[in-house]
UniProtKB/TrEMBL annotation:
Protein name: Aspartate ammonia-lyase
InterPro entries noted in UniProt: Aspartate_Ammonia-Lyase, Fumarase/histidase_N, Fumarase_C_C, Fumarate_lyase_CS, Fumarate_lyase_fam, Fumarate_lyase_N, L-Aspartase-like
First-level EC class: lyase
The keyword Lyase is annotated on this UniProt entry: yes
Transmembrane segments: none
Matching PANTHER family: ASPARTATE AMMONIA-LYASE
Pfam families per record: FumaraseC_C, Lyase_1
Alphabetized UniProt keyword annotations: Lyase
A GO term, aspect molecular function: aspartate ammonia-lyase activity
Gene3D superfamilies in the record: Fumarase/aspartase (C-terminal domain), Fumarase/aspartase (Central domain), Fumarase/aspartase (N-terminal domain)
Amino acid sequence: MTDGAHAPFRTETDSLGEVEIPAGAFWGAHTARALENFPISGRPISSHPRLVDALAIVKQAAARTNRELGSIEPHKAALIERACVAIREGEYHDQFVVDVIQGGAGTSTNMNANEVVANVALHLAGHGLGDYALLNPIDDVNRSQSTNDVYPTAAKVAIAMALEDLLVEHVALKRAFADKGREFHDVLKVGRTQLQDAVPMTLGQEFHGFATTLGEDEDRIREVLPLLREINLGATAIGTGITADPRYAATVAAHLSDLRGEQYVTAGDLIEATSDTGVFMQMSGVLKRAAVKLSKICNDLRLLSSGPQAGLGEIVLPPRQAGSSIMPGKVNPVIPEVVNQVAFAVVGHDVTVTMAAEAGQLQLNAFEPIIVHSILTNVGWLAAACRTLRVHCVEGIRANVDRLDSMVRTSVGVVTALTPYIGYAAASALAKAALLTGRDVADLVVEAGLMDRERVRQLTSPERLTGAAPVTGSVPVVGPDTAAIALAQPTEADSI
C-alpha cells in the first residue's frame, strides 16, 4: 500500500487486481470499481441520508451480534461500533459515493458501507486508511452478512425513518387545512359537481374535507410501517443462513430493535423474504395514493383561486412571485403547481417500482437499488411538497367573501332544498325560470303560490342548506301542481 501521507493515491487490491484510490478517501477498491462502472444518475447514495444512517445502524447491530456470539474479537466490534456512531452523527456521509443506480442488487452500496466503516474505524483508532490487516471491510465489518440481507433491511429501516419525517410534514399540512376549515366555518359558497353549480355549502366544509382526506392518507402510511419491521438479517446469500451462526438472526433482530427503539422481527421464511419485494410495492402504492389525492387538492386550490377577474376567484392564494415576463401584475399559483409536479413524479416512480418488483428472478431481486431510490425519492419529495404547500400557500389563503356571497345569492342551487316540498318538476321549472330571468328563486316560489316567504326562508337558511341544522321527522312530499308549474314557467317577455 502506498503511504497516503506522501502520495495522492494509495493502492488497494481486490479479486480483480490492484486499484488506485485517492489517498484521503474512506472508501476502497470495491467502491472504486463501482464508480467506474455506474456513472448513471450523478446522484450518490449519500443523497439519501436516511439510507446511509440505516446502513450504519445495520452494521452496528451486526457488530454487537458478532461480539455477543463470539464471531468477532471484542476490540474489532468496538471499533466498528465507534465508526457507525460517527457516521450516524452525520460525519463521513460524503464518502458514500456509489451511484444510486447500480447493477448487482445493491452489492456496491454494501461494499461502499463496509469500506467506509472499516476506514473510519481505522482512522479513529489512529491507523492509516486501507490498513485492512487490522480491520477488514469484508471479513470483519461484513461478518455474518450478505448484501442480500443487509441491503433490504437497511432499505426498510431507511424508509421507516424517512416516513417519520414525511408524517411530521403531512400532519402539519392536515392541521393547516383544518385551521382554515374553522376560519371559514360561516363562509357560504356554491358547491360544484362536474364543474357545474350544485347546492350551497361552506368554504369551511370544503377545507375541512381537504384535512380529512389527508388524515386518511396518514392512516394508510402508518398501516404500512409495521410491515417494514419484518427483516431478513441472518438470511445471508439466499435465505439459508450460510456463514452465519444459527443464533445470529434472532440476536441481530434484537440488537436492531434496541438501536431503533422499535420491534423488528425475523421473517418466518428467509428464502421467501430474501426475494420478496411486496412491502416495497405496497409502500409505493400508498405513497402514490397520498400524492394523487394531494395533487387533486392542489387542482382544487388552483380552480378556486382562478382569476382574479375572469375565473372563480373564491379564494386568494398568497402571491409568491411575478407570474409572467410579459403580462404585468400577473401572479400564478406556483406553489400548488410544484406540488402537482411532485405528484406526477411519484406516480412515475411507482410504475418503476412495479416493473422492478416484477422483474425479480428466483432467489433474489437484482433491481432493489432502483426500488429503494424511487421510494426514498418519493418520500423526500412529498415531505418537501407538504411543507412548501403549508408554509407558502395554505396558511396564507384568504376567502373572497364578497364574491362568494354574490354567487350564493344568485345561485339556483338552493331550489334543491325545496324539492321534497314542491316536487321535482316544479323545482326544475323554477330553476329554469331563475336562470332565464336572473330573478331570485325565493320570489318565484312565492309568486307561484307554492310556499309562503317565511317557509322559503326557513328551508333555504344557511344552516339548512349546509347541513348544520339537519331535517328531523318526515318530509311531506307535495305532488306536482300543474298550475303552479305553469306559473313558474318564464314567458317570452321574461327572457327578452
